Amino acid sequence: MKSSDRPRISVIGSGRCSEEVSRQAERLGLLLAGAGFGIVCGGLGGVMESVCKGAAAANGYSIGILPGTDPLEANRYCTHALATGLGPMRNYLVILNGALTVAVAGGYGTLSEIGLAKKNRPHGPRAGDLAAAPRTHSGQ
C-alpha cells in the first residue's frame, strides 16, 4: 500500500510540552503508524515533533502543514513538509486532511483546532486515555 493510500489521523497539540506529554505523543505516533495510519500535524515542535518521532519509529509517515513559507522549518522527524504561509489559519488544513482528530495537549491554538475538528470532523480519545488503555501481555 502506498503511503498516500493509508488513512490519515490529524494529531493536534502544543508546540511546547512536558516530557510526559512528549512521551504520550510519541507513543500515540508509534501506535497509529504501527496500525497503518499516516499522521497529519502542524509539523513543528512539542507534541507535533513527538508524534512524528513515534511515527518514524514505526516506519510510518507524517505530513507537517507548516504556518510559514519555509519547508525546512519542519521538525526532523516530519517526512512530508508543506509550507503554507498561512500562519495559524493553516489549522483548518491540519484538521481537513485527517479522517479523525486526536488532541494531546495544548493552548489556544489547539483549542481553535478542536473547535474546527468538532464542527468538521470526528474526534477521538485524548492521548492520556490511550496511555491508560489496557495493554496485552506482551506490553504492547
Account of the 3D structure:
The protein is α/β, with parallel strands linked by helices and 140 residues long. The protein has a single domain, classed as Rossmann fold (3-Layer(aba) Sandwich). Helix content is 36%, strand content 16%. It has helices at residues 19-34, 47-57, 91-96, 108-120, 127-131, and strands spanning 8-12, 38-41, 62-66, 80-83, 100-103. It has a 5-stranded parallel sheet with strand order 4-3-2-1-5, sandwiched between helices. Helix 1 runs parallel beside helix 2 (47-57). The protein is globular and about 30 Å long. It starts with 7 loop residues before the first strand and ends in a 9-residue tail after the last helix.
List the helices and strands and how they pair.
Layout: E1 8-12, H1 19-34, E2 38-41, H2 47-57, E3 62-66, E4 80-83, H3 91-96, E5 100-103, H4 108-120, H5 127-131
Parallel strand pairs: 1-2, 1-5, 2-3, 3-4
* Rounded average pLDDT: 87
How would you describe the oligomerization state of the chains in this entry? single chain
- The gross shape turns out to be globular
Instruction: Give the structural class.
Output: alpha/beta
User: And the CATH topology?
Assistant: Rossmann fold
Number of helices: 5
Describe the structure concisely:
The chain is an alpha/beta fold. The chain contains five helices and five strands; from the N terminus they run βαβαββαβαα. It has a single domain, classed as Rossmann fold (3-Layer(aba) Sandwich).
